[in-house]
């Protein structure tokens, strides 16, 4: 009996000691502040990584930078004679060498084994890193923008206002366009940067020609934004083509630097068709353009002569009753041939197709039942192409290779580990830099061979959040009513107790071209979500039908009915949450921005019994107010889909509001213009319904910089205060 008592006392003492130690360990962890969560995600808490990795042209050496791009390190694919990664230059040393005032190495580009180019947007420098010498090679006028240098010819293209100019290697200025009409814009992105368009200037391979986008916006309405930083306030006018209204008219100019003449290419169809995915062929004799009609249900891949701009032939066409959306220019695996690879969704998933310049399909290189994302490069002889794809799990970004030649191309996955991979291929194709993160890996960088074998571990980051009091993230899947797999993420607090009841904040986007949940560091979540969890919340996100990287059949179910199937899938998530014993079903909140703002407000109005609180940032409230290029792809024109626009309009459902709703908008938002929120607020006033509204003066579509801390404080504490 005494032995049993003594043993029991020993067990109790041991248990109490364990509890004290655990408490001490917990106490040693720092509390995550909201400010640090917002501003520190990509700074103090972000994993160490090799920033700006580049292979030196024609060598097996590489460089990378520290987080602030202040220090440059040189490494060797093969460590011979004790050669190891070595810091070779700082920005301070570079500025001393050049007499420059560069703030970082960002934008540096190697053009040979020893030389690199760097610029500050106005001043352009060339540096020989071996002899530690450099010089300024050109200076542009002070108001130059969008500067782009040809790294061999060293000519520089740029814009001033709405016009395009070239500064030759010799420093001579050439005027490419001289339009005095501000409605005609040259050298900038067109089509509101849809269709993968990110810029408006394109150098030919030789540097003898410069192509540029030009848009005539004469018939596009001027849209007023108020600049309140002036006294008195001033109107800033932008061009904003709303669904169903007049659109811009595009064309492509091709400027010959020798003759100083320009040939123009206009759409083969209607004047407001889209000219997308421009590229020169390797021999510079031709250009390829994907023309998409305004209804976005037909695409023609066209060939034109570079010198004259003359139409040669349509290489092939694609059509779909819902939409056709090319986002990648033709890729040439070998610069000795004009044969090209095209990424197409025609099979239901993005795959690679190999064509000749007569439009003959030589072979289908991949036949995946998952999404090919992008082409990374090819072997020097063009026989193998390297590309990214999701694999069977759309949360991944994996790397594959495919053989280009032969009647039966073969594919092979070369990144064995699941996760989100970034790969850079050496010029010889012998080495690949592979950096990735996943649910379990913060950051890992290595060198691999073309078969995926690890040759060298470069860096493995430690967990920067290990000493921070932070909860856990769980990835899961659900099944929609039609059998579609839905991907979910649930963040719990660090002191989670399954015997308690927790309120939930659902963070939602739900729209196309976006994926909230990825197999990467933090599972793609924002760090402020973990802060919210520490306030005693569960934070839940679901990627449903319509979101990115699921295949055309999945994504296109939203056609002509935005907000319908997306909400049905989110409701499956709510159903799951309510099935959990530790969820307080009476305290559900929802928050999202942009399309997520549309979804948030839609829930508060179309399903008013589900969520008690909603915070919607920059929401689309009526798709007729949104831009043509995006809106008409998914909803068609208002006159073509009257019932669909009416059902999706939040003004239609405003009378149903029951919970607490906060609407937020940047006052100079040029993506989702403030008319969306104004129209809904006006409707609430007419109906006599109270809600809350908060503007962010002089912010665009999102609130960035230090003001983002104010934004998230406003959003999250509104939910906490009203979800009691």
| CATH topology (level 3) name of the domain at 468-722 | Rossmann fold
Global structural class: alpha+beta
Percent helix, as a range, is 10-25%
N-to-C CA distance? 52 Å
Q: Numbering strands along the chain, what is their spatial order in the largest sheet? A: 37-38-40-39-41-42-43-44
Architecture (CATH level 2) name of the domain at 468-722: 3-Layer(aba) Sandwich
**CATH-assigned homologous superfamily of the domain at 468-722:** Alpha/Beta hydrolase fold, catalytic domain
Coarse shape: globular
Number of helices: 12
Poorly predicted ranges (pLDDT <50, ≥5 residues)? 1-26
The first-level CATH class of the domain at 468-722 is given as: Alpha Beta
Key words describing this protein structure:
about 725 residues, alpha+beta, Rossmann fold, 8-stranded mixed β-sheet, 12 helices
Descriptive notes:
There is one protein chain. The protein has 724 residues and is of the alpha+beta class. Among the domains are: 92 residues, no CATH class; 255 residues, Alpha/Beta hydrolase fold, catalytic domain (Rossmann fold), CATH 3.40.50. Helix content is 18%, strand content 34%. The chain has 12 helices and 44 strands. Strands 37-38-40-39-41-42-43-44 form an 8-stranded mixed β-sheet, with helices on both faces. Strands 14, 15, 16, 19 and 20 form a 5-stranded antiparallel β-sheet that branches. A 4-stranded antiparallel β-sheet has the order 2-3-4-5. Strand 3 and strand 4 form a beta hairpin. Helix 2 packs antiparallel against helix 4.
């Amino acid at each position: 009996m005494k032995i049993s008592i003594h043993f029991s006392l020993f067990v109790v003492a041991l248990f109490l000691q364990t509890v004290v130690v655990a408490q001490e360990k917990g106490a040693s962890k720092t509390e995550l502040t909201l400010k640090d969560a917002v501003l520190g995600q990509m700074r103090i808490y972000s994993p160490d990584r090799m920033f700006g990795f580049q292979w030196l042209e024609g060598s097996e050496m590489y460089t990378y930078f520290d987080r602030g791009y202040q220090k440059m390190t040189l490494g060797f694919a093969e460590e011979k004679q004790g050669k190891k990664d070595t810091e070779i230059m700082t920005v301070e040393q570079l500025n001393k060498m050049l007499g420059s005032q560069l703030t970082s190495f960002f934008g540096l580009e190697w053009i040979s084994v020893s030389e690199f180019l760097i610029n500050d947007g106005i001043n352009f420098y060339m540096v020989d890193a071996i002899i530690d010498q450099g010089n300024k090679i050109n200076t542009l006028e002070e108001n130059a923008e969008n500067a782009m240098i040809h790294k061999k010819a060293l000519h520089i293209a740029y814009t001033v206002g709405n016009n395009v100019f070239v500064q030759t290697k010799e420093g001579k200025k050439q005027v490419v366009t001289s339009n005095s009409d501000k409605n005609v814009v040259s050298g900038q992105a067109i089509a509101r940067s849809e269709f993968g368009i990110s810029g408006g200037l394109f150098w030919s391979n030789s540097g003898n020609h410069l192509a540029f986008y030009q848009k005539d916006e004469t018939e596009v309405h001027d849209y007023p934004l108020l600049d309140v930083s002036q006294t008195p306030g001033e109107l800033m006018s932008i061009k904003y083509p709303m669904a169903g209204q007049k659109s811009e008219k595009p064309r492509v100019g091709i400027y010959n630097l020798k003759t100083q003449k320009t040939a123009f290419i206009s759409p083969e169809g209607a004047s407001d068709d889209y000219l997308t995915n421009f590229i020169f062929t390797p021999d510079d004799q031709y250009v390829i353009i994907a023309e998409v009609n305004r209804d976005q249900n037909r695409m023609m891949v066209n060939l034109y002569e570079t010198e004259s701009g003359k139409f040669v032939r349509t290489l092939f066409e694609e059509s779909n009753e819902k939409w056709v959306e090319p986002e990648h220019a033709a890729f040439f695996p070998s610069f000795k041939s004009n044969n090209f690879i095209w990424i197409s969704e025609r099979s239901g998933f993005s795959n690679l197709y190999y064509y000749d310049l007569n439009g003959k399909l030589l072979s289908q290189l991949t036949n995946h039942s998952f999404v090919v994302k992008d082409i990374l490069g090819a072997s020097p002889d063009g026989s193998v192409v390297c590309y990214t794809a999701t694999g069977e799990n759309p949360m991944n970004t994996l790397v594959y290779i495919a053989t280009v030649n032969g009647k039966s191309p073969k594919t092979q996955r070369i990144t064995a580990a699941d996760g989100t991979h970034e790969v850079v291929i050496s010029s010889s194709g012998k080495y690949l830099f592979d950096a990735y993160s996943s649910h379990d890996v913060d950051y890992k960088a290595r060198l691999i061979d073309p078969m995926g074998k690890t040759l060298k571990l470069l860096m493995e980051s430690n967990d920067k959040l290990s000493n921070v009091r932070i909860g856990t993230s769980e990835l899961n899947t659900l099944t929609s009513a039609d059998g579609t797999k839905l991907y979910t993420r649930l963040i719990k607090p660090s002191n989670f107790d399954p015997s308690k009841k927790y309120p939930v904040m659902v963070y939602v986007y739900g729209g196309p071209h976006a994926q909230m949940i990825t197999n990467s560091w933090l599972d793609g979540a924002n760090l402020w979500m973990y802060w919210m969890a520490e306030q005693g919340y569960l934070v839940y996100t679901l990627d449903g039908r319509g979101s990115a990287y699921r295949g055309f059949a999945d994504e296109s179910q939203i056609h002509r009915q935005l907000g319908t199937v997306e909400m049905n899938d989110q409701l499956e998530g709510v159903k799951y949450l309510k099935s959990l014993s530790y969820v307080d079903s009476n305290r559900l909140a929802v928050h999202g921005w942009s399309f997520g703002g549309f979804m948030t407000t839609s829930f508060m109005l179309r399903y008013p019994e589900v969520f008690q609180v909603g915070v919607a940032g920059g929401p689309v409230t009526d798709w007729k107010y949104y831009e043509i290029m995006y809106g008409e792809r998914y909803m068609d024109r208002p006159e073509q889909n009257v019932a669909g626009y009416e059902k999706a309009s939040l003004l239609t459902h405003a009378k149903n509001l029951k919970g607490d709703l906060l609407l937020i908008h940047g006052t100079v938002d040029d993506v989702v213009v403030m008319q969306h929120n104004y129209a809904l607020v006006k409707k609430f006033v007419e109906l006599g319904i109270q809600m809350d509204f908060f503007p962010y003066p002089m912010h665009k579509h999102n609130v960035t910089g230090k003001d983002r801390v104010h934004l998230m404080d406003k959003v999250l504490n509104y939910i906490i205060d009203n979800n009691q």
